[in-house]
Design a protein that fits this description.
two-stranded antiparallel sheet, alpha/beta, 17 helices, Helicase, Ruva Protein, domain 3, 44% helix, single chain, binds magnesium ion, binds adenosine-5'-triphosphate, Rossmann fold
Length: 367
Amino acid sequence: MDSTIDDIIVGQSAPVKELKRLIEVVAPSPTSVLVLGETGTGKELVARAVHAASGRSGRLVSVNCAAIPSELLESEIFGHEKGAFTGADKPREGRVELARGGTLFLDEIGDMPLPLQTKLLRVLEDRKVQRVGGNDEIAVDFRLVCATHQNIQSRVDEGAFRADLFYRINVFPVQVPSLAERHVDIPLIAAAIMNSLAKAQNSTAPTLDDSAMAELSRYTWPGNVRELRNVLERAMVMFPSQPITATQVRDNLLRMKAPDRAEEMDALWEASQGLGGVDIMTESSEPPLPHPAHYADWFSYFESIDLRRHLRDIEVVLIEAALTKSDGMVSQAAEALKLRRTTLIEKMKKLMIERPGQSDSHGNAAE
Ligand SMILES: Nc1ncnc2c1ncn2[C@@H]1O[C@H](COP(=O)(O)OP(=O)(O)OP(=O)(O)O)[C@@H](O)[C@H]1O
Ligand SMILES: [Mg+2]
């Protein structure tokens, strides 16, 4: 079993160090913690780290408020007495009681139905639970950690989340950074994930060379660490115990290899990865660009986008593709990009893009 914050949360980047420092500070106190962050950033790991570093002897008991149907959620959290409802043939402790002496982790708290929010508020005020169908008030000592990928403040403004409960749970907010904000940690995190996958599957992990790592490091990861994990799992299946280079990352891992004609669209595909439901137009009369209108749906799938980074990535990919097509001839590439030659040269400098075949002069252009 892992035991320290460092074992649980892999990474040494500045935002991750800050995250670990916050956890270390808050863990021993009884204070409620609210873990915020995009999907797949590791909110559940933060809850585990808080519990592990708390010194509390009880268990970490989790409830995913979004995964349990609302009719069952009440008895799941608060327990029930015999005969409380059809099928309740035995009394049952709820998760609050199971977390006695330990930590209760309410995941996706933003999805908790309003009537349960009221009940939870009372439990937090009195530190006593009343089971469904029961009259007794049972005192429980537990530490509360909540998590959500939603903007709870806007749920409060919409009237979907109680403001008084929000203030109760938001005593110590902890923001988990997106993977793009800590891309320097990608090699470390990838190694840790591959080790654990190799152990679990009793196989040997493939080795990623520097070019493969650079490719992974500059992708935008809208699905964060979970998406990285999926990509690495795919790598274990497709390239067991084999070396992996940038080409495989691009062609087989960040997307599944598509037949022939798509070859020339590689770069564009890559630039549009993670855009939920984006199709690349395949009509030969049309340029193979994702239509800008497809970005309109972005926020139906994701909480945020690092716009500057995304636009920059698209720029890098298109400039590199144009230079490759022109065999490194800058004026031809500029023409293909409808840019002035001097503008292209400026951009190449700023984005550290080298002409194909010149990459040994200044080291790796990728960050
Ligand atoms: N720093 C890290 N080092 C290693 N693995 C990590 C790290 N952060 C997250 N993971 C892994 O990424 C996956 C997603 O993490 P987790 O479930 O904690 O994210 P989450 O923020 O709760 O996601 P969601 O919002 O989708 O519930 C898990 O498999 C977890 O083990
Ligand atoms: Mg989660």
